[in-house]
Amino acid sequence: MKGLEISKKFFFEYGKPMLEEKFSHLLPYIAVGLVGSGSERYGYDDKISTDHDFQPDFCIFIPDESVVDRKAEFELERAYYKLPKEYLGYKRSWVEAVGGGRRGVIRTADFYKEKTGSSDGTLYKEQWLRIPEHYLLEATNGEIFLDNLGEFSKIREKLSCFPEDIRLKKLAGNLLLMAQSGQYNYPRCLRRKETASAQLSVYEFAKSAINVLFLLAKKYTPYYKWTFRALREISVEYSKISEKLEFLISSSNETDLAEKKTNIIQDVCEFILKELVNQNLTDEDKPEMELLSYQVNDKIADAELRNSHVLSAV
What is the rounded CA–CA span in Å between residue 128 and residue 113? Predict the structure, then answer.
């Protein structure tokens, strides 16, 4: 059973009855779920995940002190701590009073401010451009089990995806980086017999291509160790491209492999061209990433953002 499922079951079996019995007056203002940092929030947990920070738990999100004061916050935390210390064979560790970082009672404003810098999910253009995507994903992953006030879910929805102009700017920048690393620098490094530099070029190409693929799917790029798993989950086509990118970064640059890798780079670019065409972001028929980068940039409606350097969002 996955950690998210365990936590949800634990909440409805013990957490919800506790809240209904002892804090019925606060229930209209409370949201409960499991979101934020940790593999179980993504459904990526496995047997290895249980070696640290894995336990039946959940987050109780509360509004500001004008609605739920510090005394009530402390009482909620104490009641949360008194829930069963073991569930389905998993032990619950001690949680610091008033908040525990990833679990327990957390102010909604504090949670979103930590992840995004904004307590209510309102982000300015510059903030959208600079916040690491995995933080935005941590603000919107997992599952909310209940939200009686609706405040938490409203902010969550506001942060669920990039505004279109921001998506296009990031897309343009990463397309240009793909051109520089994969279509230009990789073959040049090979001609100089700089195989280590060639592999760095391949890595940079794969990294930028991954960002492009998530942007095309209108999803945030996760923390690096989960990128390939997340790519495979998007679609069968994305899974196939994921396999090609894995080969690029895990194989050497001997003569026979280098030719194969050059062809794979072209395959990846052609797949991305097809996706750009499907989204009406280009009508080109050649996978020249530099040209495509500037065409995507021209689609940006905001003049200031459109006229800023094409790499300003990457």
Answer: 14
Token pair, residue 247, equals 């080969």
Angle 236-250/195-216 helices, nearest 10 degrees?
160
Q: What is the CA radius of gyration of the chain?
A: 23
Strand segments, DSSP code E, in 88-187 are 90-91, 104-107, 143-147
**Distance from C-alpha of 295 to C-alpha of 172, rounded to nearest angstrom:** 8
Name the H helices within the chain: 3-10, 16-22, 70-81, 108-116, 125-130, 133-138, 151-158, 164-178, 186-191, 195-216, 227-234, 236-250, 255-278, 289-298, 303-307
**Is residue 91 classed exposed, middle or buried when 0-12, 13-18 and 19+ CB atoms within 10 A define those classes?**
exposed
pLDDT tens series, the chain, 314 aa:
888 999 999 999 999 999 999 999 999 999 999 999 888 888 887 777 766 667 889 999 999 999 999 999 999 999 999 999 988 888 887 654 444 468 899 999 999 999 999 999 999 999 999 999 999 999 999 999 999 999 999 999 999 999 999 999 999 999 999 999 999 999 999 999 999 999 999 999 999 999 999 999 999 999 999 999 999 999 999 999 999 999 999 999 988 899 999 999 999 999 999 999 999 999 999 999 999 999 999 999 999 999 999 999 99
Alpha helices in 23-107 (DSSP H): 70-81
From CA 313, how far away is CA 307, in angstroms rounded? 12
Distance CA 265, CA 263 (A): 5
Can you name the residues that pair with 32 across neighbouring β-strands? 60, 146
